[in-house]
Amino acid sequence: MTAPEADVIRSPHTGWTRRHWEHTADTLLAAVRPHAGPEGSLIHLPGPASGSGTHSDGLEGFARTFLLAAFRAAGTTDREHAARLLAPYAEGLAAGTDPAGPHRWPRPAELPQARVEAASLAIALHETRPLLWDRLPDAVRQRAVDWLREVCGAAVPPNNWVWFRAVVSAFLRSAGAPYAPDDIDHAIEATETWYAGEGWYSDGTRSPGHLRNYDHYNGWAMHLYPLWYSRIAAGHADPARTAVYRRRLAAFLDDAAHLVAANGSPLLQGRSLTYRFAAAAPFAAGALFDTGALTPGLTRRAVSGMVRHFLDHGATEPDGLLSLGWHHPFPRLRQHYSGPASPYWASKAFAVLLLPGDHPLWTATEEPLPVERGDFVRAMAAPGWIAAGTRADGIVRVANHGTDHTPPDRPARDDPFYARHAYTTHTAPELAPLRPAPAGPHPDPQAHARDGDARHRDAADLAQLHDSHVALLTADGTPSQRTPFERVALTEDTAVSRHRAHWPPPADGTEEAADRDRWPAGPWITTAALLHGPWEIRLIRVTPDDAAATAGPPLRLRVGGHPLAAAAPPQEDTTAGHALVRRPDGLTSALFPLRPDDGTPAVHRDRHTNAFGPHSATPHYLTPRPLPYGHVHAVALYLGNPGPQAPPPEPPTVTVDGTTLTVHWPGGPTRTLTL
């Protein structure tokens, strides 16, 4: 297929128009067709099986690409093309719902993952109702109803999954079939308990009242499904409740636009990152459900920028399939629930195609993103983040002092997708291999892998942990863990949190629940982040509690900066009292010890641990001697692109009076903080 010509007049930032979206959808759909099985009900893409097995993965391949086909077909005026797109899915639906057929789908009653895919099927069937559902034979419609009804009342975890049941029930009701009103009521009621304000939902909670699960699911699930439920339910939906959902999405989009880089990359934080441009889904929903939050030109700039970013950076294989990874294939980005077709959750972004060609989303001129308009520092209270964007390089950085995806009352192993002190649009956390999930029921369900992610770090993994962290090292060099941590303060440019340092045993899946209360624990670490331009000042104060005060001598402190990764090893420089790493394109990460300034800046290197490339390097700092309790440590962390050979700008400085610190930004204001 020949790509359309770029339109740099209407789309001066991306060049994309509606025709590019249609072309991309057609290309993605054409790539999966050779992998459809007999009768088209199961689409088995190449790659490692998910934890749910290959049968489930085949259903996932069908459901998630059916959603893409549905958006493409429902939004086109070319009825013949729509019919061609939907014909194989009509055939697959007939075969997949046949309980006695050789190519049947796994049933929702027998496989939890089928309950997830049922929601995509319901939305796709709703959007193509006159094109597909209404034209199916009565027997096929009845089999589809019978299959979907198994979702009703099925067990789901207390998170975004509650909406899979509600959306399915809404579709069943619209089809005149029995449905589960309790599923709808439960989703609505549970969602209210997870709303944290200012447009942010926690994706469920591990402990009632403790909202700590913030990631891209806020946009591509917690906002998307309630509004799609209302769309399917039509007159049965409470209009006042729908209006609330629209206002909340509008509030979130104001923050979300500040988390998109000038190159189109979303923030690389949280689980399921292989869904890639599904991060554009809340922007698409904002336009589709007319929230009025963002102008049409800004919305198209965001959504087209995200999709183009991934396509331009190798998200598709030579055969056109979306790979498991971020840019290029990167297996360590998987969770245990990730299968070869999981990346097609990205189909949600194509909801923009439901808007007709004369909609302002398509006719307006693209407008710049917040990071393209100027530098900003922005507090996001619900997730406990401070975001900073810089126009010169288009990078967005986030200091994380409120999101750890962990129960608050017991020590846990750090999850690299949630526990780091910083996340950005241009760097990725270093990842250990995905360990096999423990067999059988886990002895501590609250501590089990987050939503199926059994990424536990053993002693060897922990020894390699350097990126974006603050840790106390034992005599053998094992770093302490951060989660769970407590919020302390959040202002317009500063975030503060504290945690009890602890050292988990090697993760072999055999420890008993009670063992967590006996994990070795150390002093409290209070950490503050002050952001300004490309800089973060990270302040650390270590204080004992009664037990730790007599447990032994103070420990050495290590602070890690932003990791960089590329196809070739990044350059490094540790000759001027700081540690610096630089990619060939000029992207630079540096760490400057400020107080005290006699530590050991160094660079840690690794291979095949980072989504941005096979060679990674992280600047870090180690105190030269055990850290006295109560003293304040300060480092300056830089992430920016001053040019391929240019040094970073002049770093900020810090003066200390007891526990009161004054930060002096070069050529700018001062900031005082008591830690």
UniProtKB/TrEMBL annotation:
Q: Where is the composition biased (Basic and acidic residues)?
A: 445-455
Could you tell me the superkingdom of the organism this chain comes from?
Bacteria
Q: Where is this region: Disordered?
A: 427-455, 496-517
Q: Which organism is it from?
A: Streptomyces carpaticus
What protein am I looking at? Answer: DUF2264 domain-containing protein
Pfam families listed in its UniProt record: DUF2264
What spans are recorded as compositionally biased (Pro residues)? 435-444
PANTHER family recorded: LINALOOL DEHYDRATASE_ISOMERASE DOMAIN-CONTAINING PROTEIN
Residue intervals of the DUF2264 domain: 17-369
